[in-house]
What we know:
Mean pLDDT: 86
Strand content: over 45%
CATH topology of the domain at 52-145: Immunoglobulin-like
Number of strands: 9
Shape: rod-shaped
Low-confidence stretches: none
Strand order of the largest sheet: 3-4-7-6-5
CATH architecture of the domain at 52-145: Sandwich
Order of helices and strands: HEEEEEEEEE
Largest sheet: 5 strands, antiparallel
Number of helices: 1
Distance between the termini: 101 Å
Structural class: alpha+beta
Amino acid sequence: MHGSELKDGQHSTPEPDPRPSLFPRVLFSLALIGLMVGLMIGKLTNPDTLELIKIEEEPAALVLWFTAEPKVQTTTVDGALVVQFQAHGLTRSGQVDIDGKKANWRTQPGDSGLLLNVIAARPLQGDISGEKEEGRWRLKLSLREE
């Protein structure tokens, strides 16, 4: 076995390399490239979030503007009209005039999307129609007394 004593003026163990190791840099670069490619693939496969842009009040109707076509489910609970959208949006509220009588409406985020509640002193019914307009989705909720 060879020791570390001098033989012919040289050590048997080599001197440490003064150059920095490139392995950590290469590994970090590969991880960064993998992260960026993964984010790009995720952005391509994940559709944009559907959002409620604004709500306009018309006589006996509400006009809701979305970024794209939402899935809509309408139910009536004790005379109140509840509309559920597969979308995101902020809490908003207001009043709409139905045949000279006021009805209150309110949007709020729910467990599986955005909820629109329309409440009046009498039972309400609603008809929904939608169309694409100006690159956005226009949804009209026509309200009437039951």
